[in-house]
Design a protein that fits this description.
2 copies of one chain form a homodimer. Chain A is α+β, with helices and mostly antiparallel strands and 119 residues long. Chain A has a single domain, classed as Alpha-Beta Plaits (2-Layer Sandwich), CATH 3.30.70.100. Chain A contains 5 helices and 5 strands. In chain A, strands 2-3-1-4 form a 4-stranded antiparallel β-sheet. The radius of gyration of chain A is 18 Å and the shape is globular. The two termini of chain A are 35 Å apart. At the A-B interface, strand 1, helix 1, strand 2, strand 3 and strand 4 of A face strand 1, helix 1, strand 2, strand 3 and strand 4 of B. Strand 2 of chain A pairs antiparallel with strand 5 of chain B.
């Protein structure tokens, strides 16, 4: 089984301090072990026709769907969601098992000198 | 600098054979080296209020923005986009440098026996 992803794309209300929200998210995922990894980004291109006004993507990865369920039911998540729902103008959520079609290349092997040092 | 992501969320037209589109995408990313990795998923929850009718997420990762630009200008991409644009009911694209806040844990080290075998 592959990983399970929680994808949120969002447009924040005009008067929102986005940095505060992002800091809150950072704290949230640090506190919940079930979240395997988390990354976010802000669209650079800003072509309204393509982004439909959405500005930020939030992407969390879980080892399996059960970990996502744990995350959803965590008290800290409920608390954060309460705040989050007040700052968004629009939002789309997609939750899905990820199919990794083209995996990233493996990291390069360590230099030979390092391998010897471990022997 | 972190990676650059190309995120597409989409709702296909009702009569579209989605598998054919996904096969086309698989072929596309296999042919273009600039695409570092590619994964996709179909939302499982199907809560219209949350997904807004979007069903699929398509996520490509590039080492840097320049690689994404190479991808965009690749003749195969132009060809695929022409087809893709005919099968979608609605779409959002977000292109962004990814901020990796919580990296995935490193893979476990190889068993000691394997390390010895390399000496």
């Amino acid at each position: 089984m592959g990983e399970f992803k929680h994808l949120v794309i969002v447009k924040f209300k005009a008067d929102v301090v986005v940095e505060e929200i992002l800091t809150g998210l950072e704290k949230l995922v640090a506190e919940i072990d079930a979240v395997k990894s988390y990354e976010w980004g802000q669209d650079l291109e800003s072509q309204e026709m393509l982004t439909q006004g959405f500005t930020h993507a939030i992407l969390m990865t879980f080892d399996k769907k059960e970990d996502y369920t744990l995350f959803l039911s965590h008290p800290k998540h409920a608390e954060f969601s309460g705040t989050f729902s007040t700052v968004i103008e629009k939002i789309v959520l997609l939750d899905f098992p990820a199919t990794l079609v083209k995996p990233p290349p493996p990291p390069p092997p360590p230099p030979a000198a390092e391998v010897k040092a471990e022997v």
